[in-house]
Amino acid sequence: MAVPFLYDLVGFGGNLEYIASVLSPAFMLLLGDQVYADVDMYPRDTGALYEATVHDRSYKALTQSTPIFSMYDDHEIYNNWNQGEDDDPLYTERVGLFHRYFGQRNPRPLRDGDHYYAWQAGAASFFMLDVRKYASPKAMVDGPQKTKLGAVQKSHLLSWLLAAETPFKFIVSPMVVSSLGLHSTDEGWALYRAEYHEIFDVVVAHNISGVVVLSGDLHWAGFFQHGAYPFLFEMGASPIAALPVPPFLPRWLVNSTDTLHFSSCTGTHFGLVDVASTRLSMTIYRARFGWPEPVFTRELLWTDTIPVPAR
């Protein structure tokens, strides 16, 4: 969230205060880039960036009333970081700071020493992915050996999908999953399609209903329907406090069968999900000047998410 030079000018804007005082959600997801440790014009350390974030007036107002579930992405370490901990000593230092200020509030990880975790709330189950620690280099040729999650985390995810009994099951990814993300980044799942298909082919094979994706990092907001899996919907709503970045690649350069039902790149964004037993409402909020406003809502029935509907 905290881009140093931008935060110094405008702080977090009004989004966090609006969420805390008007929406009052049961909890909030922060999907990475809580600080921009690699983008700083001033001689201060990463710990000082975290201190500025957690002691910010609007952030404190939010966290005093709202539980936070979080994950790191790349900027907590450095831009496009995509290596294992043994490959980069900076990881150990900076992910430790993330854990101190954010990660220790999360549920216990599914594997000691890792960061990914799962939890349940009402009619929904959630799996928070770590898409950085075990990711293969993005330049690697796509295939069975290329991974975003690593073998153990992927096994945990598939086991969770098979075991979850709630009507809705949210896969939470700090990176965009839809291949339409290629309009503005090569950091998402679009370069890891073999693993993407491996995961969602399991959803189809076992007819697992209620699977929905929540994603971040795109710096614009979108609501996607996956072409290879028409039952799979994804909402990405970012940035909440950083600079928006419009999609810059033209449509004809992006080979995707996914459908973009909504997009916005002129403001800051966040999403709200309201879950009931047989339906959910997904809303994207946008702030340009002043308080944020809802700009898109999609209602999904549980039956919309069944991979192989009964005949």
TrEMBL record:
This is PhoD-like phosphatase metallophosphatase domain-containing protein. Residues 50-221 form the PhoD-like phosphatase metallophosphatase domain. It comes from Saprolegnia parasitica (strain CBS 223.65).
